Amino acid sequence: MLHINPDKTLSHIAPEIYGQFSEHLGRCIYDGIYVGEDSDIPNVKGMRKDVVEALRALHLPVLRWPGGCFADEYHWRDGIGPKENRRRMVNTNWGGIVEDNRFGTHEFLELCDQLDCEPYIAVNLGSGTVQEAAEWIEYMTADGDSTITNLRKENGRTKPWHLKYVGIGNENWGCGGSMSPDFYANEYKRYQCFCKNYGNNKLYKVACGPSGEDYNWTKELMSRIDHEHANGISLHYYTVPGDWEHKGSATDFSDEEYYITISKALHIEDIIEKHLAIMDEYDPNHDIDLLVDEWGTWYDVEPGTNPGFLYQQNTMRDAIVTAASLNIFNKHSDRIAMANIAQVVNVLQAMILTEDTKILKTPTYDVFQMYKEHQDATLVESYAADAANRINEPVISYNDISIPALSESVSVTEQNGQKLLTITLSNTSLTDSLSVELELPIKYSFCGKASVAMLHAEARAYNTFDDPDRVRAFETEEDWNGNLQVVSLPACSVCRICCYVS
Ligand code: AHR
């Protein structure tokens, strides 16, 4: 039984929880997004039309760029001005290929315009300078007659852009400079001080937070910064079925590896709660948000592809990871202000894979599509319990792994003076279907047509360029009445229901 209480509103679900990440890594930017104006692939100002259209359909709220590890070796001046004059650099983190900087600040902000999303820029703290960071913000957001703003105008952009989200450094405990938390915290404070608000543009500043279970980083950072310095701190957590040497195949995995993957994905909830508890000690008023600005599955690269390009396939297992992760983020939306799955196209747990002129949408894409109604909605109380109100989530046991079979979250929006519920459910079992009774308080009733979207397939099923819709959600309409409704979830499935209640 899943109890849903539309009156018990808990928190606003920031649309940014459904955010994405794009890095100069492998074929994410080049091929995946940017093909250049002279390409045979249909494009607008160099951006692939098919990819932009597919991402717009997700109502993508925010896109993080230029990295990742790349951010701390990126020098923004290399990526402006005539393309033929742009500096060529070695992308030392990702395959050692030459980056010619033909996609830079103007191109990224043009992409965000086409996607109608907020840009989220990561500035270089690791190998850059304070002046460089400060001038990048000025270049993008200041008006008037300064040397920097005039440079922007010479490069074809008269008006400043709107820029809200700025991350200062990336993984500075690792690829961003191997710093200790106290050293980083001091550097962060210095850098953020010179990232100014110009005109009406107000920055939301993000400090580099921990990796996974590094609670010491959070403690040391939070003891040194306050809301005068930072609006949020980041958390990075990847679901790696094996270890970093042998991560496991994206498509060829055993049942045990499946359950290990889901169990590791669910572990993010514990990690989030522990970091939030530490943040509470230093920030009891919750002025500083948590941003999970990199998350998702990370497997061995597809055989025959460049190991530095992190290209992986995406199965129904990834869809289950996505559904469960987004439900967790929704449930913690009182403190989580943003989450960015890594990465948007052709890298790690991507929405879209491309091959020359072809694209395919992955099962992960479908989950983002199904869950988009949660964006900007209000989380309401929902919990699995029996008649005596004891928690009774069915549990799956496999060898020594134990995970809940059901993942869920519920939100409400007011539409036409009525309450519209969005209920997202996932059955993590590989073998057993799950019957879920959805119960509203007695004064409420489901009324009228419910739109039910269902995604289910064998866990190892995936889409290919020859069979791009092998795993695809389908939608039906059902008549729902009364305060109790039963939904049957096939094994390994994700379901989204939108229904008015009164
Ligand atoms: O997303 C790939 C990499 O993972 C990013 O560059 C880095 O921040 C993280 O370690």
Automatic annotation (TrEMBL):
Keyword Hydrolase: yes
Pathway assigned to this chain's UniProt record: Glycan metabolism
EC number(s) per entry: 3.2.1.55
Source organism, top-level taxon: Bacteria
Alphabetical UniProt keywords: Carbohydrate metabolism, Glycosidase, Hydrolase
Reaction catalyzed: Hydrolysis of terminal non-reducing alpha-L-arabinofuranoside residues in alpha-L-arabinosides
Domain Alpha-L-arabinofuranosidase C-terminal, first and last residues per copy: 293-493
Subunit structure: Homohexamer; trimer of dimers.
Protein family: Belongs to the glycosyl hydrolase 51 family.
Protein name listed in UniProt: non-reducing end alpha-L-arabinofuranosidase
